[in-house]
Input
Amino acid sequence: MSVLASLGNPTDTPLAGGFADRLRDSFGRAITDLRVSVTDRCNYRCVYCRTGNDGAQYAELPHAGYLRMIKLFVSLGIEKIRLTGGEPLLRDGLLELIQEIAQLRTPFSGDGLDIAITTNGHLLAGLAQPLKDAGLTRTTVSMDAVDPETFTAITRVPRSFDRVLAGIRAAGAVGLGPVKVNCVLLRGFNDSQIEAFAEFSRQEGVIVRFIEWMPLEEDRTWTPEAVVPLEEIVARLNAYRPLVELPAHAASETARRYTFDDGLGEIGIIAPVSRPFCGHCSRIRLTSDGKIRTCLFSQTDHDLAGRMMRGASDDELTAYIRQVVMRKEARHHIGEAGFEKPSRSMVHIGG
Ligand code: SAM
Output
């Protein structure tokens, strides 16, 4: 069988029945959330993520490969797919892939999937309606400053800020909202933006989520001192206007949610460094070259695509996925003595 045929032959994928048990790890956590990187190319070079150079080799599979792997995961109980990268909107054929994913039903309830995307928004304005039409349900846009100059200093790409703003507005307008806007805070770089982001959430009707910087960057510049922790963000927001904590939507939710005393605006704070949430982790990741990662901080990849290319059957592949998931780590060890940086950086994992 050719490589392409072996990657893209989903005909015998069991979508209904055949698997009584949902995917669980050895700690009993149900794995329901799959993040799929469809490319590790990116048109930004954010200072906290990438080196300034752009000479890396890229790793992508044909869409049929991702689709076959996604079908296998869905047959095991995955309910939510997040497409990411690299920058997923750079990927040719993305709309067709979303259309195919939108046809899938989870065998346990018969419901369709929640299909989300995380994008830097540079190409979003023109694609928001086609993405919605293809079956995308939600959008998260990364935007690390509301001040255009700071934004450019972080992304190292000129004249993109207005495009991202237009993308956020277009996504909301076509019904891909409420749009989440992710901001990774770096002390001394964009922490001046906290109050401005609160204002932005209130004015634009978007959910702003502040994320603690994790040691996942290409050039190994992370330091604990550069992380702006949850407690400090909460104090700053409270001084701006009293915060009111909102209940979590689900135990596995990564963000602590807040609004303000007048109910206007929503802020999420994702604090993997100061308040890890590994105990409720429901996530598993597929890299753009088809490797399973059980944790952002794993030291090992598990080569699902390689097994497909060598002609493994769907039964063999699902058995392999179950085996790999049983090896999911209990938690990460950021900030502990002996912490080892993971074997891949964020752009090559998929955030
Ligand atoms: N290119 C897309 C984007 O910009 O949203 C998707 C990929 S990007 C790797 C996904 C998310 O990871 C972005 O919100 C980005 O800010 C975040 N991210 C990247 N490196 C990070 C790090 N070291 N710590 C925390 N978040 C990070």
User: Anything to note?
Assistant: Residues 42, 48-49, 84-85, 87, 118-120, 142, 182, 184, 211, 213-214, 216-217, 346-347, 351 surround S-adenosylmethionine (CB under 6 Å). Residues 23-349 form a domain with the TIM Barrel fold (CATH 3.20.20.70). Residues 1-19 have pLDDT under 50 and may be disordered.
